[in-house]
């Protein structure tokens, strides 16, 4: 076991964007001056926000206990939406609070609904009262920056750009993007996975997993009905691609002359060693993403029920080291499946099989 169990040290909120730096970097070096300039400005804004996050550390225990859902009727979201009015000062002007009538601004309403869909999945499926387990108010700002091509979680709130209209549309459009970013908050309050290398790729993957589950839950889809794509609708019609990432077939989400080809591997055989993007956190996340997809497909039914429950149990167990790698995470999922469903259960067998299919051998961290 780690000398410092996950729940004893401070949580370090990380700055996490939905569009990976490698994609923006590719855009910034393109031939179109308009496109490359916008991508460069988005990268610069992301860099300054990232620096700001390093300076501010929220002081709270990483493992906030989920409040028991004795009477979930009393557990309501507390949402506030702000309009940044194309400026970069957060949060901006308050435009909609919990219980207010819908706004005339569709971005405000989509952000409000997406925060609600995220709150609803965590409460109804896992008894988790908001992202910290204790009813944390959910805040979001829309219309951030001029033609800002990203959305992010900054450790305290959600922020959405409007996109540039050429490559990216409004970032409030896909509900899984909202769920993805808010799940970075859940991870921050639970396993607190370090945003680098394999633990960083797991941090990204967990956000994709629950982002997808939030979309599936809001649409009432089974694992077979779901598209397993992240960020459908973000790209404009000018882009050759359907989404930012595919959990079903990593590496196939887009293949565009300006954006390049989706670089995600589906298995360890194609693992990408890179110094960029914090050690490829948005690239190698394809491997645990694909493992989860295989598990959900194998178990069938609603993916948030058994497959999602095993991942949620793993995230909130207190047994993950913040620096855990794929092998340690795989071992933890097998343990979680055994604890909940039994060591000889179909669920645990399916977990072992899904990791084997992506080339990860479950192995507890050294020293445990």
Explain this structure.
- Helix content is 40%, strand content 8%.
- It is an alpha+beta fold and 368 residues long.
- The protein folds into 2 domains: 16-189, Elastase, domain 1 (Roll); 197-357, Neutral Protease, domain 2 (Orthogonal Bundle).
- The protein has a 6-stranded mixed sheet, covered by helices on one side.
- Strand 9 and strand 10 form a beta hairpin.
- Helix 7 packs antiparallel against helix 10 (346-357).
- The longest helix has 23 residues, at 33-55.
- Mean pLDDT is 89; it is low at 1-9 and 54-69.
Secondary structure: elements and pairs:
Elements: E1 16-17, H1 21-28, H2 33-55, E2 79-83, E3 93-97, H3 106-126, E4 138-142, E5 151-153, E6 158-160, H4 175-189, H5 197-219, E7 229-230, E8 245-246, E9 255-256, E10 260-261, H6 277-280, H7 286-299, H8 307-316, H9 326-341, H10 346-357
Parallel strand pairs: 2-4, 4-6
Antiparallel strand pairs: 1-5, 2-3, 5-6, 7-8, 9-10
Brief description of this entry?
With 368 residues, this protein is α+β, with helices and mostly antiparallel strands. It is built from 10 helices and 10 strands.
Which shape, going by the Cα principal axes?
Answer: globular
CATH class of the largest domain: Alpha Beta
Low-pLDDT segments, ≥5 res? 1-9, 54-69
Tell me the series of helices and strands, N- to C-terminal: EHHEEHEEEHHEEEEHHHHH
Say how many strands there are: 10
- What fraction, in percent, of the residue positions are helical? 25-40%
Rounded mean pLDDT score:
89
Reported by name, the CATH topology of the largest domain is Elastase, domain 1
Structural class: alpha+beta
Portion in beta strands: 5-15%
Instruction: Report the CATH architecture of the largest domain.
Output: Roll
- How many domains comprise the coordinates? 2
Distinct helical segment count: 10
Sheet with most strands: 6 strands, mixed
**Rg value:** 19 Å
First-residue to last-residue Cα separation: 4 Å
Biased composition (Basic and acidic residues): 73-103
Biased composition (Low complexity): 63-72
Pfam families: Peptidase_M4, Peptidase_M4_C
Domain Peptidase M4 C-terminal: 191-360
């Amino acid at each position: 076991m780690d000398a410092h169990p996950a729940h004893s040290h401070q949580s370090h909120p990380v700055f996490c964007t939905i569009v990976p730096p490698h994609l923006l970097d590719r855009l910034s070096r393109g031939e179109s001056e308009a496109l490359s300039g916008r991508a460069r400005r988005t990268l610069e804004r992301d860099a300054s926000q990232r620096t700001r996050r390093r300076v501010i550390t929220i002081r709270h225990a990483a493992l906030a206990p989920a409040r028991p859902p004795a009477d979930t009727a009393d557990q309501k979201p507390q949402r506030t939406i702000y309009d940044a009015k194309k400026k970069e000062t957060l949060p901006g002007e308050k435009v909609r609070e919990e219980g207010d009538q819908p706004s005339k601004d569709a971005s405000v309403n989509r952000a409000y609904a997406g925060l609600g869909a995220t709150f609803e999945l965590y409460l109804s499926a896992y008894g988790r009262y908001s992202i910290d387990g204790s009813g944390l108010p959910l805040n979001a700002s829309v219309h951030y920056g001029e033609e800002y091509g990203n959305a992010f979680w900054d450790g305290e709130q959600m922020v959405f750009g409007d996109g540039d209209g050429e490559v990216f549309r409004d970032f409030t459009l896909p509900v899984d993007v909202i769920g993805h970013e808010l799940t970075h908050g859940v991870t921050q309050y639970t396993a607190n996975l370090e945003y680098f290398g394999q633990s960083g790729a797991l941090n990204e993957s967990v956000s994709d997993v629950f982002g997808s589950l939030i979309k599936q839950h809001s649409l009432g889809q089974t694992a077979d009905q779901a598209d397993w794509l992240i960020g459908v609708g973000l790209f404009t019609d000018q882009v050759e691609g359907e989404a930012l990432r595919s959990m079903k077939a990593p590496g196939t989400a887009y293949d565009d002359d300006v954006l390049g080809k989706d670089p995600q591997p589906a298995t360890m055989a194609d693992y990408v060693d890179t110094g960029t993007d914090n050690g490829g956190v948005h690239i190698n996340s394809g491997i645990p993403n694909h493992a989860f997809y295989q598990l959900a497909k194998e178990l069938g039914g609603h993916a948030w029920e058994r497959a999602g429950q095993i991942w949620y149990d793993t995230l909130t167990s207190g047994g993950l080291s913040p620096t855990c790698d794929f092998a340690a995470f795989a071992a933890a999922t097998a343990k979680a499946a055994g604890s909940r469903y039994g060591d000889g259960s179909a669920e645990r067998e399916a977990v072992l099989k899904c990791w084997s299919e992506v080339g990860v051998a479950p192995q507890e961290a050294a020293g445990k």
